[in-house]
Amino acid sequence: MNIPSELKYTKDHEWIKIDGDIATVGITDFAQGELGDIVYVEVETVGEELDQEEVFGTVEAVKTVSDLFLPLTGEIVEFNETLEGDPELVNSDPYGAGWMVKIKIADTSQIDGLLSADGYKEVIGA
């Protein structure tokens, strides 16, 4: 299982890559493996300011639909539109081409509350 050490994580299985005041968000390798084949990613919150842990979209797999929770308060500034036609990128490249949204971080102090790679491994029992 791939859990890159340079990323931050949430207990809800999202990963976060911080670049200045922009954070790229996706779901972890563990999450995509648990969900199975992803057939649809829906994000209709671009341009909206959402609070930490608010639902920003959904990911649909063959057998289930799961909410996606925002790891940090901020404005959704971009959706990975490639996923509209190629949602299986979330399965094949969850930390690269399978990213979901980019947010403009409103409160950088929340970053301290995110999990490290080791902390996330504890959550999933790895």
Report on this structure.
The protein contains 4 helices and 9 strands. The chain is α+β, with helices and mostly antiparallel strands and 126 residues long. It has one domain: OB fold (Dihydrolipoamide Acetyltransferase, E2P) (Beta Barrel), CATH 2.40.50.100. The strands form 2 sheets. Strands 1-2-3-9-8-5 form a 6-stranded antiparallel β-sheet. The protein has a 3-stranded antiparallel β-sheet with strand order 4-6-7. The relative contact order is 0.26. The model has no long low-confidence stretch (mean pLDDT 97). The glycine cleavage system catalyzes the degradation of glycine. The H protein shuttles the methylamine group of glycine from the P protein to the T protein. Keywords: Lipoyl.
Overall tally of domains:
1
* CATH topology tier name: OB fold (Dihydrolipoamide Acetyltransferase, E2P)
**Beta strand %:** 25-35%
Q: DSSP helix count? A: 4
User: What structural category do the secondary elements indicate?
Assistant: alpha+beta
Family: Belongs to the GcvH family.
Domain Lipoyl-binding: 22-104
Pfam families: GCV_H (PF01597)
Function: The glycine cleavage system catalyzes the degradation of glycine. The H protein shuttles the methylamine group of glycine from the P protein to the T protein.
